[in-house]
Amino acid sequence: MAQTRGNLAIREQEKRQNSTSQQYRQKTTVVTRRAELPAREKLLYLASVLVAVALCSIVAWRYVHIYDLNHKIASAQSETNQINKNIAQAERDKQELRQSIVPTALSLGLVQATEHEPIFVERKTGEEKQSAADKGN
């Protein structure tokens, strides 16, 4: 037999002994089983999750509400700008019409009144107007 040094010699002997007598080794495996959570703890976790979901949904709802308000404000501002443009256009038209009244009246043959000459207009009573309207119909 060849000489071996150290643990190899012992191991060789152990191997020889095991090979000669077939012994069965008993293997033990450690199975660790997690304990199930108690019902109260499960309910506590469920309640905390529900509270977190409720808070997140409230925050999201508020953001949606703020977005909707901003959208309404922007549309109201655009409508206000459009109305202001229309008012400015109407003011220009009004100014143009005021400036064109006197030349138009003079071209139609009307005479401009002075401060010293009053203008007399015939006054008709309501009965005469109604009778004239009845005659026209």
From TrEMBL:
The chain crosses the membrane at residues 43-64. Residues 73-100 form a coiled coil. Keywords: Coiled coil, Membrane, Transmembrane, Transmembrane helix. Residues 1-26 are annotated as: Disordered. It comes from the Bacteria. This is Cell division protein FtsL. It comes from Saccharibacillus alkalitolerans.
